[in-house]
Design brief:
globular, Pyridoxine 5'-phosphate synthase, eight-stranded parallel beta barrel, about 260 residues, pyridoxine 5'-phosphate synthase activity, 11 helices, TIM Barrel, alpha/beta
Length: about 260
Amino acid sequence: MSFLQPAGPAIDLGINIDHVATLRNARGTRYPDPIRAALEAEEAGADAITLHLREDRRHIRDEDVKAIRPLLQTRMNLEAAVTKEMIDFACGIQPQDVCLVPEKRTEVTTEGGLDVRGHFADVQAAIVQLQQERIRVSLFIDPDVEQIQAAAESGAPVIELHTGRYADATSEREQQEELERIRIAVQAGVKLGLKVNAGHGLHYTNVQAIAAIPEIAELNIGHAVVAHAVFAGWRNAVSEMKAIMVKARLDALKAKA
């Protein structure tokens, strides 16, 4: 929880800085600087900094991760594929959290959750290696009860539910169906003793319903904040998102009281 937010039934915001690096890399310049983005996001109320070191280094690079890690006052949440290269790199960096994600070179962004059941042995081996370094592991998975069960069996203490289908819904009915699917998945995760986070595709007008689910501990959001920052400024974009999330959570708790 950020020191800028009071203790209590609020919700954490992890700011993903990948697309700050995307802008930098588009012209091969040194700006905008992901390091500055991370530090200013913390000052604006972010509770964690999320970044994904992809196999093709399309945005975040090795040197970014190495430079940011010792400077953070909150937490680093390093997203990584289940490969020897990435797990070894993470163990060397020692982030507080590693979120294991699926990865395809051809995808624009992560298209779905990790198939924990289908790659159980590899996922479990990665978890064991990371936990030996005292790194907390989360698994980025679809809101599917079978995958949540597999996540619990693997030994990961945290799951992050993929909210892409909810975010991409083209009708109110479809969105509500996906929201209910997420609610059911959250309850399944909590029942199994897991910390439940969520993220992907969330923005300033669809995050409220997800943030209102009281058992969700943290949302990880990046592209929408980077896009809004073009018009509102980086710190304003971060603090606005955090304020929207906290208000939605507190309003939901007040309605239940």
